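re: ur question from earlier - yeah i can do the single chain one, its not a big deal. heres the input i used so u can compare w yours
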Amino acid sequence: MDSALIAAFQQPAPIKCTLVRFELPGEALCLTDGGFALFDAGDGEGVETYLGRHPTYGVLSRVGNAKDGADSGTPRVEVEILPASDIAAAALGSPNVQGGRFQWWEGVVDPVSGLLVGAPELKFDGEIDKPRLSVDGEGWSLTLECGTQAERQLEPNADWRLNNGFHQLIWPGELGLSFVDGVTRKKEWRSRPENPGVFKRLLKTFVPFLPD
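and the output i got, formated as tokens:
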């Protein structure tokens, strides 16, 4: 965490600020939980304005606590937005939004200048998964469930498996997996081998200088 931000959080009554950024088709939606803030997310777009009330899409209501992944799950977070209209709700809940990048920061605002203190802390960096529309007597709200890209490894998708089809997609014409047994089993990329001890001993046979 940025040293200036740490000092700001240690003040008796810091003015905390939540920032969220959604990458929508053709534009970025930048929201904060009050007023406005100027912040550079570091993605090459430069300084962007985070609005407390977006004229087209509405207001950021809350960001839920990130849920740690367990067993076959991965970290997820829910972001609730109060849409400005039914058109805004339909746009944010569109299938075209799914897969767009989502980022969430927590920072502190300087009460004198109104600017962010130091660099806000990045709490979550993932992608939009699916929307959930809620309607009650007070109005409606749209909750966007967001997950990490690691969740794609849990999908039963052959393109992410260690098999001949995916191998040749990356290295066309390379037939190293064409005549290998056992590659039809579900085995995602970057997954831990069944017996890491055997795998490490085999690797050390070919790379003898590896540490024990």
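The first strand starts at residue 15 and ends at 24. not sure if urs matches, ping me
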